[in-house]
Amino acid sequence: MVLDILIHGLEWASIYATIAIGFSLIFSASRIINLAQGEFVMLGGLIGFSLYSTHLPLFLIPFLSAAIVASVGIVLERVAISPAKRASPTSLIIITIALSVILRSTAALVWGPHTFRIPSFFAHLPAGTQILFFDLDYILIVGSCFVSIIILGLFLKKTRLGRALRACSMDPTGARIVGISPEKMRMLSFSISAGLGGMVGVLIAPVFYANSDLGLNLGIKGFCAAVLGGMGNIPGAIVGGFIIGISEAMGASFASSYKDIIAPVLMLFVLYLKPRGILGGRS
Amino acid sequence: MRRDLKKGVIFALIVVTAPFIFRYVIFYPLEPLLRAGFFVMLAVSLSLVVGLAGQISLGHGAFFGIGAYTAGIMATKLNLPFFLTIPIGTLSGIIAGFLIGYPVLKLKSYYLALATLIIGIATYEFFKAADSLTGGEMGLYNLPNIQIGKIEFYSPFSHYFIVWSFALLTVFFCDFFSTSPVGKRLKALHSDEEAAECVGIDVFGLKLKVFVFASAIAAFAGTLFAHCSYGTIYPGEFDVGLSIKIITMVVLGGMYSVYGAAMGAVIVSLVPEVIRRIGDFFYMDLTQVTHINDIIFGIILILFMIFSPEGILAKKEEKSA
Amino acid sequence: MLEVKGVSRYFGGLVALEDVFLEVREGEIVGLMGPNGAGKTTLFNVITNLIPPSKGEVYFKGEKITGLAPHEVTRKGVVRTFQNVRVFEHLTVLENVEVAVPENNRTGFLQVMFPFFKLNSLNGFIEEKAYTYLKIVGLAHLARKNSSSLTFGQQRLLGIARALACEPEFLLFDEPSAGLNRQEISELLKVIENIHQRGTTIFIIEHNIGMLMSLAQRIIVLDRGKKILEGTPERIREEKKILDIYFGRREKCSV
């Protein structure tokens, strides 16, 4: 039983962790809390659905969706964030909230209020195929999140661009002095976070669903995870994602109707007791 | 003082004549006007916290919901009469305001915004989750109408006038409040908390008091809402979107101005109606129009935040100060 | 009247104050000087409890004030001004002073709600009181102006008026002459002397040594968080150590 919960929780944990990384990445690069992060997930799912209808080769769809959402992220950053130079942090929060509303409503207009499902990416294989007792879809989700996190980590540690991003997060002024442009880093962080979100969205579409309300729910959970681990702290986002994923799985087996309240409550606890998060984010 | 009186009288006149014009001249239902009344109370109370004291609260809708649900539960489960559900509902808002405000107001600026945002989300989730108490996703129904003694008020007109009387009272009172000694102290702590502390102002205590006060007003509005909602309330009415709408109203109307917030409330309530009518004219689906509404308001809000974070009426107010 | 007993303040590894003992008696004007970073403003912050001390206590009129909230310290009669003034930008000049008046503080939420009509006269009373303080510093003619539109020197005076409105028995001035021109400084001197003559005890941080020498009856010198000298202005002037501190130490360098 406990193993079941852990396994099930792991799936959601990796999803929340990836979304949370999206939050923390943008925050670490630009001190902005992008409350529209969840909508990137939503867009990923919906775009994935549309791409599916065009009968493209299945393996291309996740990459293409992620890429398209990443571009949307860049557009948003250029259009709504960059011009708001003089805005206080709170105004920026309100801006990103407004952005999430716009994204959600636009999606609802374009795709309508329906909920879409796409078949598993492995539909062409015999049903019930498993590797080591795990469903292929499950492996795809957990595996992709895992792989993306590792790739992101390598990017941040080993590549010049990644190191520039980290430098910017530690000291934007110092970074500027050595020739790194915080504005470009902000744009980069938006595109990566959007891409990550989009990827999550398209990958969970077969297992879960895709509609215009998806972003709100997952975004909130991912946000709570990011704050839990420390906003701006990427390992913290992973930790936070895991805590919430596993807690929800446990909660679901005890009192299923209260499942959705776990994440906000945990986040409130952290905000009161240790506002910087478990692993200590940046201020 | 005299200029404010003129503003107030004009406002009151408009409020009194509007429903008649709506009903008998344009043949339009009164619901949007009624909703505007609630929003005025919500926006004006929030403007005390956000505008005067400078504390960003993104979860004000939660208190509206707490007041509404408490009154609703008192009415349906305990069969309490109207004149009891109202004070109990308001009291629940006061208690919630204190319990929430005490830890939250110790946080600094955007942690505060986030915490209040999450409080808003958490209360919404709670309304959905606590089936036995709140009726879960379906909400509460069979809520009684406003009943004073033997007279039951069920017509939209009566609802309108009752709600708007309180709305006007709230506006006048909060405006009066903002120019009172307490209001000035709040503005002082808005300007510089440490300096305010050093001239003898109990900064935290004052922040908490204004927060509780605003929550009480919101909860009171909620209790009225529970009795004017055609008998049902459901969680969807108290979600994050509500709190965002309220802060939009405050922002639009000028963060520092009570009348501005009231104006903002009216605009944000009524403009969607206008757009809806235009949409009807082009045979658009109602939900589509709602989405277009949200998009438009989102864009307006962003533009405001970029170009003038203080709101429309703020400039006028600054000069008169 | 004010006793600082063994106050130390550390910020991580940095020693801002170390074992400071000093005393200011009623009716005195005492100066506090020392090079930048000596801990003077930190000492003021600890006295008013904006920052708690890491060690030690502060007593006012025999009562321990360490641990009280800053606004309570102010209400006990210990009031400070700020080096960078910090006027309330959202308020007019007059209102800046009004909020400091004790009667304003006593007018809370309940008073606004219930004695609805008494409020007008109370408002008037507070306004009048605030006016008198503005007159003392010579800013009465600017009463209705927005406080952020004042010049720096005027804002400085406003800060003093605001501090006076708190009805202090003990006033802490933090570099009041910084950023002022010669004329403004002489006006400031007159104002401070005026305040002292009315019976307020004054503790003043200053870099303007000439001003300090003419004002203060006694001077305390801090350096690197420690009290190193104390005495009358004449005595301090003669001490060689002062030159050392202000113009750099002569240390043996091993080259």
Describe the structure.
- Chain B: This is Branched-chain amino acid ABC transporter permease.
- Chain B: GO terms for molecular function: branched-chain amino acid transmembrane transporter activity.
- Chain B: Keywords: Cell membrane, Membrane, Transmembrane, Transmembrane helix.
- Chain B: It is found in: Cell membrane.
- The complex is a heterotrimer of chains A (283), B (321) and C (255).
- Chain A is mostly helical and 283 residues long.
- Chain A has one domain: Orthogonal Bundle (ABC transporter involved in vitamin B12 uptake, BtuC).
- In chain A, 72% of the residues lie in helices and 1% in strands.
- Chain A has a two-stranded antiparallel sheet with strand order 1-2.
- In chain A, a hairpin with a 2-residue loop joins strand 1 and strand 2.
- Chain A is globular, with a radius of gyration of 18 Å.
- By secondary structure, chain B is an all-alpha fold.
- Chain B has one domain: ABC transporter involved in vitamin B12 uptake, BtuC (Orthogonal Bundle).
- Chain B has a two-stranded antiparallel sheet.
- In chain B, helix 4 packs antiparallel against helix 10 and helix 11 crosses helix 12.
- The C terminus of chain B is likely disordered.
- With 255 residues, chain C is α/β, with parallel strands linked by helices.
- In chain C, 40% of the residues lie in helices and 23% in strands.
- Chain C has a 6-stranded mixed beta sheet, sandwiched between helices.
- Chain C starts with a strand and ends in an 8-residue tail after the last helix.
- At the A-B interface, helix 4, helix 9 and helix 11 of A face helix 5, helix 11 and helix 13 of B.
